[in-house]
Amino acid sequence: MKNLINRMRGVERDVIDKPGQDGSQGGAPFYKPQADEVEIFQAAYAKRLPVMLKGPTGCGKTRFLEHVAHTLGQPLVTVSCHEDLTSSDLVGRFLLEGEETVWQDGPLTRSVKEGAICYLDEIVEARTDTTVVIHPLTDHRRQLPLDKKSQIIDAHEDFMLVISYNPGYQTVLKDLKPSTKQRFVGIHFDYPSEEVEREIVAKESGGLDADRVEKLVAAGRKARALKDHGLEEATSTRALAYAGELMQAGLSPRVACRAAMIAPITDDPELIQALEEIFDAHFPESEAA
Amino acid sequence: MSEQVRNDGGADSEAGDLVEIEEILQHLEDMSFVAHRDAKEALPAIREFGAGPARRWIETARDLFFHDREAGKSFMRHSARMAEHVGGVEPWRAQAAEFARWVNSADALEGFMSQADRVFAAWGEDGEREWYATGLRWCERSLPDARAYFETDFDKLAAGRGIEGLRALIDPAETLFDERGLTLDCYLEGAPIARNLVGDGGLLSWARRGADLLKAGRSRGEAYFRLESDESLKLLLDALPGFRPRMHGRFLRLVMLAWLDADIPLADSSWKPGEGRPMLETDGRRLFMPAVMDSREEALVATQHAAAHLAYDTYALSRVERLFERAGSEHPPLDDRSRITWRPLFAAFGERMFRFQILFDLAEDLRVNARVAPRILRFLERLVRLAEAYERPAEPAGTYFDFALRAHRALLEGREPEDPRLARMLEPDADVVTAWEVAEELFADGAFPEITIEERAEAYLPGLSLNAALPVYPQRERNGELADFRDHEAHDEHKFEHEKQEEQPQQAPEDAQKDPDADIQTPQQETSGTGGRIGTGIPQPAQVAKRAAPYTPKKDGILYPEWDYREQRYISDWVNLYERVLDDEAPDRAAEILTRHADTLKRLTRGLEMQRPMRPAPLRKQMDGDELDTEAVIDYVADKKAGLSPKAFIYRRRAVQHRDTSVLMLADMSTSIMARHPGGQGKIVDRVREGMMLFAEAIDRVGDPCAIAGFASKQRDQVNYYWLKDFNEDLSATVRNRIAGVSGRLASRMGAGIRHSLEAFRRSSAQRRLLLILSDGRPADYDDGGDQRYLHEDTRMAMKEAVDAGVHPFCVTLDPSGSEYLPAIFGPGHYTIIDHVDELPRRLPEIYLRLRQ
């Protein structure tokens, strides 16, 4: 009953929900394919091969996965990995309930049992012992051993493992082990082409007018040229979408660009000036009002 | 006149005067033919003012002549003109007579005589008297100073402000002469220009600084007053209003990079205050920015416009050759740096060449601006707005200025140009040759007035500049594509220094200084010497034939193999490496670096506290400890209840959490780090030292085992490996002093350096080992036969060896073009580029701390 109320309030929902079950309306989250990534994923899914999504921050990896999971009608379980994530956080643990102990499945175990797509976001952040847990799941065995329960769970036929991996220099010391890497099908992502990006920004911002979308995307692409010249992460598609949303919410274009695309990524005064120069040129004062 | 005669006549009769004049003439004739002749020539003009004055005049002439022949001659030579202009013989006669008080005053007198009449006309009798009296005071102090005073044009001294201006300029000099013995001739070299910049009020302190320098060292002080030393320029520029491109070089570069994807380096031009309008120049590889421009807007327009010239083939070799073909001549022999210029073609226009040059530049500027405008938003708008706000120059320059402005305004508004002759410049196939043709057409039009070289600069719109100011490295046809534009020699110190000398030869010879277009004739300096920069810019032969120059290598050091990609095999014992201790210690500099970066260090330390083992990021699930780990306890109890027999790892402990990482920083210590800091002050090596120092301090605070080493090579048989700090060494004063004493030498054979570092790692037991390579360019050496790929491949293999040995290599480079070759060597994500050298000291420790997390 409580669950039902919470579910109705939208506060809480079970991690494993088939698309549509959670009561949300509408179709799959918007995703505009850049190349053949959807085909690759579907082929991998058909054979239930584990997939690795690579690419810079904010280029649409997570959105892509939400989208394909929805189109495939598969529940998606996302686990954001962090340093203190232990294998029992993934697999499960015994809990005390009164005098009893109750085994509580972790998100990975539930996905394995119920046949969901399990998405381990930024897997490199997790400890290596965590990544070893997934090994038996990623080869022909498709099994999850539960040491504490002395059980082995054979994966549901719809289960699929997806990890994301952002090759940046902060990961040098904790790169995935080659033995882990080679178990995955890799899909490479990059920032989309200008045309696609325009479409994405228009859609994400909720109907920003074409003129401003075009300028915004053009400006963002110019700003991207500054990567490696002080910018560690280039202006992402997500940042563009945020800027579009801020504009749509009534901010002037210049303010929106500063807030979404300059302030978060750099404190370098010259870089800020250069970025402002670019954005201001696209959105001249006269139109700012 | 008769009145004057009576007044001047006094008691003597006119006849007596005349007799005396004849006697003196006779006397002079006996003494000197020249004196007699000059006196006779001047006398009629003097006689007009009466016999008495004439007598006094000739007495003065005689006295001066007997005192100093030269003085007498100058007096006589200028007298006729003087008398005519002043309308009398006094007071200048009496004034000139005073010069007889000093020996060797002839030069000062010459200066006095040559302009006293003009002073008289300009400032009146009182003004002239003060001008003279001031000069005379200098005669009493020192004659060379007096000479400098009288020889300098009085109006220049006064800056057109009359006697007030003169006082303002000379008063500080008089004060400082008394205070510090500052000579006027030295002071006058730069003071008139300096006064324009710092104002009357700032002049005294400006000069006092110079006087102090002069005491410290003569040549340094003199350079200060000639406005040639950095010190004086800096002082003046600080007072100068406007935008300083040097301070904003990175901003301007980033903007060009964003709009045009062009990474064009900026450098300082030789422009100095007082040299007319500051303009940007280019040699096809760099943009030379003047120290000050009017505004940020102008600097932006100027850099973008110059980039447009490069992008749209103003300097393309093929086009320039066609210019010469049209003229039926050939490009004169290239200078030894293979640069081109079309300036010889201007010679055909003789005296009127400047008129043609402006028209030619105008047409070409319009063309490239039209081409680049769609790529840089608001470019034309900004240019037109600047030009409209600019004070229209006087004729004749104004005509050209208006013409250019109208053409650009039409372009901005999308109209056809008002002048149909310019329409051709906007056609898609127009090029620099078209500009020449259009310029010839315009040249024939009498509506454009004649113009002199002095007025030339004013004819240009703000932000635009002479297109042929410098000889230019010929460009291939780019057709708008600048993405591959590279600074071939940004880090090339030798070349850099050569160029510095070369770009500014105008100041050296006396006569070249007066000709702003001296570079047409100035012979280029010999720059083809040996010892080019290793790292990015060794002169490369067209073909790769041999692995190395043949000679017998030494083999008394530590031997390492090297990978030869052409044979796809290791050549064993190929490299001879020596471990050396760097004995250049610089304790003073070490202290200075630590002081200067005290703030950064404090900030770093605070950040480090977060990472320190002391921080209660407690160890969880321990066998014993200070408190219970709640989660572990629940797990434990639950597991136990479930019938398992878990081990009692249920405590938390605040113990030293040993992050088992050791790091070796390996610095490229090749010559290139001695290059000048691209932003101006100091050298790159200064930042490298600071970076290493902060790195060492930071790591020391974290407590990780750390070693610092540098390498430099001279061919394969001498790779030097310098230990600055070994793993087992503490960060002592000695280590700090060694780091502060780092300097660049020789080349960078990176592979050997890496291999030796791997050996060092064997001594460290840490689980995670990080090899941090600090580099500023490609690996290269003198004997790589010009084959860049050879050492690239070898370095790549050394990287692989490192990974196999359980060492994580990571490269931090200062080379902005590093992304061209680093991914291939280190792999994507295993390097980072710091294109802003000043950030190195701060970034280095940060990078390490991020890597070790």
Please outline the helices and strands:
The complex is a heterodimer of chains A (289) and B (853).
Chain A: H1 2-9, H2 37-46, E1 51-54, H3 61-72, E2 76-80, H4 87-91, E3 92-97, E4 100-105, H5 107-114, E5 117-121, H6 128-133, E6 143-146, E7 151-154, E8 160-165, H7 178-181, E9 185-188, H8 194-204, H9 210-224, H10 237-248, H11 253-262, H12 269-282, H13 285-288
Parallel strand pairs in A: 1-8, 1-9, 2-5, 5-8
Antiparallel strand pairs in A: 3-4, 6-7
Helix pairs in contact in A: 8-9, 8-10, 9-10, 9-12, 10-11, 11-12
Chain B: H1 2-9, H2 14-31, H3 33-47, H4 51-67, H5 69-86, H6 92-98, H7 106-141, H8 143-151, H9 154-158, H10 162-180, H11 184-216, H12 218-225, H13 230-239, H14 249-260, E1 266-268, E2 281-282, E3 287-289, H15 296-311, H16 317-326, H17 343-346, H18 353-372, H19 379-389, H20 397-412, H21 432-443, H22 453-456, H23 493-503, H24 510-514, E4 558-564, E5 569-581, H25 587-596, H26 598-611, E6 619-622, E7 627-628, H27 630-641, E8 651-653, E9 661-668, H28 684-702, E10 706-713, E11 719-725, H29 733-740, H30 750-761, E12 768-775, H31 788-804, E13 807-813, H32 822-826, E14 831-833, H33 840-852
Parallel strand pairs in B: 1-3, 5-11, 9-10, 9-12, 12-13, 13-14
Antiparallel strand pairs in B: 2-3, 4-5, 6-8, 7-8, 10-11
Helix pairs in contact in B: 2-3, 2-4, 3-4, 3-5, 4-5, 4-6, 5-7, 7-8, 7-10, 8-11, 10-11, 11-12, 11-13, 14-15, 15-18, 15-19, 18-20, 18-21, 19-20, 25-29, 26-28, 26-33, 28-33, 30-31
